[in-house]
Design brief:
163 residues, mainly alpha
């Protein structure tokens, strides 16, 4: 009776006994080679995490004044929307979903927190009005990405500084 060819391991014996065969850096020949494993960054789950992630996006892409991001209909630009300069509201939405146009409850909560933390009162407390209020603050002439980043970081760390 002969053994079935599939019952036999197709891999040769391991040369390094300390590393298991299932290690992600082991190749079938038993040699070791480092492999780059890219893991997706986790999405923020709290308002402070969203604000810090939005601040990082604004540092990377820049602040856009006038609309959520340039060339919203992609008539001339081919870069992804999330890679373009963004408004504060778009950066918050992008931090939550990866798309500056997607609205979620967490993004609305973060936008509302920013709107209610600004010096002036918002005209009404609806998600659309709060987003417009934050956009108007960001569209003020002379407002820079540094101002927006400083605001988001200050609001994200308010509870830590109060403790």
């Amino acid at each position: 009776m002969t053994a079935h060819p599939i019952a036999r391991s197709p891999y040769p014996a391991q040369s390094d006994a300390s590393a298991p065969l299932t290690s992600p850096t082991n190749l079938p020949a038993g040699t070791r080679k480092p492999l780059l494993v890219l893991l997706p960054s986790p999405r923020p789950t709290t308002v402070p995490e969203v604000l810090l992630a939005a601040a990082r996006i604004l540092v990377t892409n820049g602040l856009w004044q006038g609309d959520y991001f340039p060339d919203a209909f992609s008539r001339t630009l081919t870069t992804p929307h999330a890679s373009r300069p963004l408004s504060i509201v778009a950066a918050i939405r992008c931090a939550v979903t990866g798309d500056p146009r997607s609205e979620t409850q967490l993004a609305d909560m973060a936008v509302g927190y920013v709107a209610l933390s600004l010096d002036e009162e918002p005209p009404a407390v609806t998600p659309w009005r709060l987003a417009l209020h934050v956009d108007n603050w960001g569209d003020t002439p002379g407002r820079s990405a540094d101002d927006a980043v400083a605001l988001l970081e200050r609001l994200a760390t308010t509870s830590e500084r109060a403790a």
